[in-house]
Amino acid sequence: MSWIGPALVIIVLIFLYYAYAVEPRRRVVTRHEIRSPFVPAGFDGVRIVQVSDTHISPFHPLREFESLVDLVNGLSPDILVFTGDLYDARRKGWEGDPSVVPHLSRMEAPLGKFAVYGNHDFGISRVTRKSGPLLEQGGFRVLVNETCRIAQPNGDAITVSGLDDYVRGRPNPKRTLSGLPEKAFHLLLVHEPDAADELTAYPIDLQLSGHSHGGQVSLPLLGAIIRTGYGRKYLAGSYEIASRRRDSRPYRLYVHRGLGTTRLRLRFGVKPEIAVFTLRREP
């Protein structure tokens, strides 16, 4: 039985190599259909691509982001959304690197590019907002407690709303969402997924979030081992949450697994993703 110790060491080393050097760079594309009677005819078949939690850093350098842009453009998004954490702001003295702007500008989406703040987009201080100006220079509209109308040439329209970050910002869902028209399709961007539980009284058809990284490391029997505030309950994938509304309108939440890493520079069982949503009009 003297071989057991060395074998365990080898297994651990293989695990660490894969989790550090391989899986963090094995991006996958996930595809989803969102069916709703509130999708206008002019938006039937419209493609929304979600990118989240890139955490650009020495571990995830700009060249990775450059290849991500090519992959996203290859998916031909009509609408592109970024749900927070452009850079990794764990380092003291972190500053948003403006060299990302040309790559953000290359991202193409004819109906618009939209973003919200994540907790890492503030830099070290809660007062500074480092990533927003870079995203805006790259052609994104950064939504901070506001709603934007997206319209087709025939007049059909949907809305996209964005709430400020729940960890470091000042989200105001009442001001942002109370006036949404009932008979329209509403998309909501908010970095932290667990905020959904306090938003189900509003007529939201799809909430897109990130933040949790899907737990980043998911082990057999143990599940996700990394959980963070406002990302503990809803970790990854699709959820339908009980609505507090009187009608039967479902509240759908999708939690993006993210593309980068933070804190622990490992991924296992939680591949980084790009999520694609196709809107379908349901009679």
Low-confidence stretches: none
CATH architecture: 4-Layer Sandwich
Strand order of the largest sheet: 1-14-2-3-4-5
Shape: globular
The residue-averaged pLDDT reads 92
Q: Which percent range describes the beta-strand content?
A: 15-25%
Task: Assign the CATH topology.
Answer: Purple Acid Phosphatase, chain A, domain 2
C-alpha end-to-end distance: 66 Å
In percent, how helical is the residue content? 10-25%
**Largest sheet: number of strands, sense, barrel closure:** 6 strands, mixed
| Broad CATH class | Alpha Beta
Number of strands: 14
- Overall structural class, as computed from helix and strand content, comes to alpha/beta
Report on this structure:
It comes from Cohnella zeiphila. One of its GO terms (molecular function) is UDP-2,3-diacylglucosamine hydrolase activity. One of its GO terms (biological process) is lipid A biosynthetic process. One of its GO terms (cellular component) is membrane. The protein starts with a helix and ends with a strand. The chain is built from 5 helices and 14 strands. The protein has one domain: Purple Acid Phosphatase, chain A, domain 2 (4-Layer Sandwich), CATH 3.60.21. It has a 6-stranded mixed β-sheet, covered by helices on one side. It has a 6-stranded mixed β-sheet with strand order 6-7-8-9-13-12. A hairpin with a 5-residue loop joins strand 6 and strand 7 (157-162). With 283 residues, the protein is α/β, with parallel strands linked by helices.
